[in-house]
Design a protein that fits this description.
alpha+beta; two-stranded antiparallel sheet; 2 helices; Reverse transcriptase Ty1/copia-type domain-containing protein; RVT_2
């Protein structure tokens, strides 16, 4: 599916979305809080992918919840960024 409205009509994709939400909650990825005055909510999208095994058979339906971070403005919505990167020393 491309759109949420398509995915929600199919049990397989509905379960994939439920699994993603369960994983987010289990890993304590976010914390619910009140929206501060003058701040906007950052939107999100669902991204759907079908994974196949080596035989070409469906292995898994994966749904990911992704934040539309490109809507944020530096100095307004955030002041610094951080991306964990592994570095191998030779």
């Amino acid at each position: 599916p491309v759109y949420y409205e398509e995915a929600i009509k199919n049990e397989v994709w509905e379960k994939a979305m439920d699994d993603e939400i369960d994983a987010i909650e289990k890993n304590q990825t976010w914390e619910l809080m009140d929206l501060p005055k003058g701040k906007d909510v950052i939107g999100f999208n669902w991204v759907y992918k079908t994974k196949y095994n080596v035989d070409g058979k469906v292995q898994k339906h994966k749904a990911r919840l992704v934040v539309r971070g490109f809507t944020q403005q530096y100095g307004v919505d955030y002041n610094e960024t951080f991306a964990p990167v592994a570095r191998l020393d030779t």
